[in-house]
Amino acid sequence: MGSITIDGKTYHGNNISVTARGVYIDGVNADDKDKREIRSVNITVEGNVESIDCASALELSCSGSINFARAGNSVRCGNVRGNVEAGNSVNCGDVIGNVKAGNCVTRR
Q1: Strand, coil or helix: what is 68?
Q2: Sign of the CA dihedral 43, 9, 81, 53?
Q3: How far is CA 35 from its chain centroid?
Q4: 27-60 pLDDT per residue, tens
Q5: How far is CA 59 from the centre of its chain?
Q6: Are 13 and 6 in contact (CB under 8 A)?
Q7: What is the pTM (predicted TM-score) of this model?
Q8: 62 contacts 76 by C-beta, under 8 angstroms
Q9: Taking 80 as the threshold, does the pLDDT of residue 19 lie above it?
């Protein structure tokens, strides 16, 4: 289980999705009471997580390994045990799956 910090609020879970409708942790909306839209944020994840899908994020940074990662601008992470996608750049360790980036891919 990993943790994710968005705008100063920390969430814990295995599957994390950030959409314009909110933050979903393991398929459940974590912010039912807070209906604010999530736009253009930087997301930092501590530890290993299964997947993060945050197309609206400027930057996704993960200290551990991840099975799937997608961010609107850039992804920086350790090893990816699946696919990684970014609108601009990917900077990560070993990738078992596919890498899709709008601009550049670099290896840590």
Answers
A1: strand
A2: negative
A3: 20
A4: 888 765 454 455 557 788 888 888 888 777 778 8
A5: 8
A6: no
A7: 0.71
A8: yes
A9: no
